[in-house]
Amino acid sequence: MFFLSEQKHANNDNTAAAHSTSSANRQNRILLFAAKNLIVRCNLPLNIVESAGFRDFMKDCCFKYEPISAKKLKRDILPSFMNNVSKTTHEALNKINYLSLTIDGWSDRRCRSFLGIT
User: Of 38, 22, 30, which Cα lies nearest the Cα of 65?
Assistant: First the structure.
């Protein structure tokens, strides 16, 4: 009898662990989505994740969303995203035989230099 109740608790622990892992994966996907679409594509600042409006919006979209700091986003999420982009880029470049690049350099009125590559 003790074994059955112990087994039942073990199954509940495994289910809770699986749910926790699933929840953590979902949280990571949400954070990668925010990094990719809001910060990279929309050129929004990292500290947007700390604003009340963003946090309220995310809670409305996903009630299990756990807010993070801009520091954690910069330290953990963006490097992961950059590694994925870098890996995908390297894989694509390894499959081609030829590559043409156009490079243009310029500076703005504040004498900041820019280099564009297409």
Answer: 30
